[in-house]
Amino acid sequence: MNWIRITRSDNIPLREGRSVRIGSRQIAVFNLGQRFLAVENRCPHGGGPLADGILSGCDVVCPLHAWKVCLETGQVRRPSVEACVATFPVRVEDGVVQVQLPSPAEAAA
Ligand code: FES
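Above: the input record for the complex with FE2/S2 (inorganic) cluster. Below: its predicted structure, written as tokens.
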């Protein structure tokens, strides 16, 4: 397990996302109120910044061409295509949002 401290939870407004760079990864972390979710910050359509998208339930709508991506599974919900983004476990400890990456090597990649 490799939990990376991201920011204080109150730095991510309710129903908004923020991007964070970890190694070579850009990760989008969203505040859904009861929980936080994190996905790769790169839309599978054309690389749009998902952190800047609008939340719709547990989905985010890409700000570039409105593809809808499920933040729980990473699957694209709209349009009907076989595409997905990576998802990452998130926890909040002592008011700090943390994202888990698969390994230290991936975090530094
Ligand atoms: S880049 Fe996200 S919908 Fe086109």
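Notes for the reader.
The chain has a mean pLDDT of 94.
Residues 17-94 form a domain with the Rieske Iron-sulfur Protein fold (CATH 2.102.10.10).
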